[in-house]
């Protein structure tokens, strides 16, 4: 608007009722508090089992500090909902996925989920993951795999279409865990026998700048240094994946 006779812009005010928005904010905060309590209980359970975490994850017992997403058993159709009402994961081959206790069970080739980062588009809630992230999962593996090759458990892909494998934790029929950095399999240097015959595991993937590492039940599987994403053609993380990543060997024998 302009003041009469002066041509100068004048400031104006508009009154908007935000009752519904305020109600939504209160509902979200209430949900976050409930999820914090639930996650804290899970953490207490892990501590009771004396699971040791790596140093940069163990700085505080309260793992809800800095926690931005939590996938549990809120699963319907091909949507695995984030309990913090943030970014949902998409389940692939949903006929091979079913709700389990505090999670989702994937069975068979191609079964898995994708948790988007760059694939969210312009509004990227997890953009910080391009620099640092800690991805934690409790995993149960039913039975020993029978096929040759490594079976992906959890990993990260980069590039606009997710064409570059940044890091991946997998396991094989010889009860070995493997950390793969990039598209190069470095199993001899970065493998560890941690007893996959044990059914339940706590898995942690960490990236800090250009340093990536993986831990299973508090023991380091391996680590590697990689160029910072902004210095590569990939530029940014596309998504995290749990289970199959779409490759030819992406199978989970009940995980």
TrEMBL record:
Annotated Trans-sialidase C-terminal domain residues: 64-252
Coiled-coil boundaries: none
Pfam families reported in the protein's UniProt record: TS_C (PF22925)
InterPro entries given in the database record: ConA-like_dom_sf, Sialidase_sf, Sialidase_trypan, TS_C
Taxonomic superkingdom: Eukaryota
GO molecular function, a single term: exo-alpha-sialidase activity
Region Disordered: start-end pairs: 231-255
Protein name as it appears in the record: Trans-sialidase, putative
Originating organism: Trypanosoma cruzi marinkellei
Organism taxonomic ancestry: Eukaryota, Discoba, Euglenozoa, Kinetoplastea, Metakinetoplastina
């Amino acid at each position: 608007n302009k003041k009469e006779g002066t041509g100068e812009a004048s400031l104006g005010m508009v009154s908007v009722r935000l009752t519904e928005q305020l109600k939504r904010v209160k509902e979200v905060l209430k949900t976050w508090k409930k999820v914090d309590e639930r996650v804290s209980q899970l953490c207490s359970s892990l501590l009771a089992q004396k699971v040791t975490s790596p140093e940069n994850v163990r700085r505080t017992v309260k793992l809800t500090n800095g926690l931005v997403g939590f996938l549990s058993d809120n699963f319907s159709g091909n949507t695995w909902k984030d309990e913090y009402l943030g970014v949902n994961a998409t389940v692939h081959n949903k006929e091979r996925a079913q709700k389990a206790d505090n999670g989702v069970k994937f069975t068979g080739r191609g079964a898995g989920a994708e948790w988007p980062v760059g694939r969210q588009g312009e509004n990227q809630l997890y953009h910080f993951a391009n620099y640092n992230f800690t991805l934690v999962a409790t995993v149960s593996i039913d039975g020993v795999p029978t096929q040759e090759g490594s079976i992906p458990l959890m990993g990260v892909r980069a590039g606009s279409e997710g064409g570059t494998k940044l890091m991946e934790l997998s396991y094989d029929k010889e009860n070995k865990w493997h950390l793969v950095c990039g598209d190069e399999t470095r199993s001899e240097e970065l493998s560890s026998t941690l007893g996959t015959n044990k059914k339940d595991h706590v898995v942690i993937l960490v990236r800090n700048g250009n340093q990536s590492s993986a831990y299973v039940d508090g023991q380091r599987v391996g680590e590697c240094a990689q160029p910072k994403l902004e210095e590569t053609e990939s530029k940014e993380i596309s998504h995290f994946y749990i289970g199959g990543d779409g490759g030819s060997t992406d199978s989970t024998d009940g995980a």
